[in-house]
Design goal:
Structural class: alpha+beta
Strand order of the largest sheet: 1-2-3
Strand content: 5-15%
Number of strands: 3
């Protein structure tokens, strides 16, 4: 079994063959294009995994907020009950970290209350503005700020990841154009052609 090359060895291999005259560079071009395409595909795949990790981390913040909300569901808490809630969703590569306001309405003819949730629109790009939470109870305010600070970091990370994916898509189009361009190059018609060596070329893997 051959030893797997380190990334330093792969770099050195491509550097070595780039100016070599005794190799088949048509094979080298094909190998380079193929590996460039594999690299871009891997970034796409890892971006999906990274976003799933962001969703996990956001849920931890959300659960932390709700743990305090549950702990304050008692008449002993001034300003009971809490009216704000947060939610984390990941759908079709869109990560949503949102807040809503709950209204509690007594049920007619029975005990208990019905809950009506009002979605709060995020005015800022990465963060909810403070006026969105002016109706929060005194004990809710610091928890909301704490949670929303973490949400903002994750929204920024997610935006950076989305920008990376856009760059990858641009690179995929450029790579297709480059492959077509290289395939259209004409061989020299005069001078001595360098002999090709079909054996022993690994082209950095």
């Amino acid at each position: 079994m051959s030893k797997r090359m380190t990334h330093q060895e792969i770099c050195a291999e491509w550097e070595s063959v780039s100016r070599a005259q005794n190799v088949n560079h048509q094979r080298g071009i094909k190998a380079a294009i193929t590996q460039c395409r594999q690299f871009l595909t891997a970034i796409h795949q890892q971006a999906d995994v990274e976003q799933a990790r962001y969703r996990y981390l956001a849920q931890r913040l959300c659960d932390h907020f709700w743990s305090h909300n549950v702990a304050h569901r008692t008449d002993q808490t001034p300003g009971y009950p809490g009216h704000f809630g947060c939610r984390v969703r990941l759908r079709k590569r869109k990560l949503e970290l949102s807040w809503y306001y709950n209204r509690f309405v007594p049920k007619k003819g029975s005990e208990g209350r019905s809950v009506f949730s009002e979605y709060i629109r995020k005015e800022g790009r990465f963060r909810y503005h403070k006026p969105a939470f002016t109706r929060a109870q005194d004990w809710e305010q610091p928890l909301i700020i704490e949670t929303e600070t973490g949400f903002e970091m994750l929204r920024r990370l997610n935006a950076n990841q989305a920008e990376l994916c856009r760059i990858v898509r641009k690179s995929e189009r450029l790579l297709r154009d480059l492959e077509e361009h290289l395939g259209g190059l004409k061989e020299a018609t005069s001078g001595c052609a360098h002999p090709s060596n079909e054996e022993g070329e690994s082209y950095g893997r």
